[in-house]
Amino acid sequence: MRAAVAALAVVASFVTCVAAQAAGDPAAGETKAATCVACHGPAGNSTQANTPSLAAQPTLYIYYQLLQFREKRRSDPLMSPMAANLTDRDMQDLAAYFSVQKAVNANSVADATKAEKGAAAARREHCESCHAKGFVGQQHIPRLAGQGLDYLRLQLKGFKSGTRPDIDGSMASAAQTLSDDDIENLSLYLAALQ
Fold first, then answer.
1. What is the pTM of this model?
2. Engineered SS bond to 70: which of 83, 138, 154, 159, CB 3.0-4.6 Å?
3. In sequence order, what DSSP letters do the residues of 80-139 get, joined into one string?
4. Cα distance between the two ends of the chain
5. Domain 112-192: CATH superfamily, name plus number
6. Ranges of each domain in the chain
């Protein structure tokens, strides 16, 4: 119990520290985002199956993910080299820019029955307690509403298998209870949300 409290204190301290550093300039971020749109789409609305949308993501979440890529705590063949030379100011500005963009969801419900099962799984697992009402994200926790189906599926499978790192292990732990059907249904449900 004591170790868990100590671990939470470290995470809270880190999040507070990063939050204080994450104030950036959206106008400067727009200029810096010119290379990002090739993958993440115009104004951060991705049109690529396995690439996340950044529009309307919480500022701190974007900053922290860039930091993880830069510091090699998270790895991706495309993102790791892109983040390698970003300064703290670059990451702050990019986060500020993408966080104020309007999320545009072009996804539709492919299977209403599976999507309803996904909604039930989200309620059962209390997903909104971290990802906020409507799955819009908060602080260092991402917006899930309207993300691409393939991307959501891949991330949930990664958390379950342990190949996708997260800040405090919460998602890795939460994903352990999900069946393959749960992952599919949750992904369908979240992808269709506005």
1. 0.86
2. 83
3. HHHHTT--HHHHHHHHHHHHTSPP------S-HHHHHHHHHHHHHTTTHHHH-GGG--BT
4. 39
5. Cytochrome c-like domain (1.10.760.10)
6. 2-99, 112-192
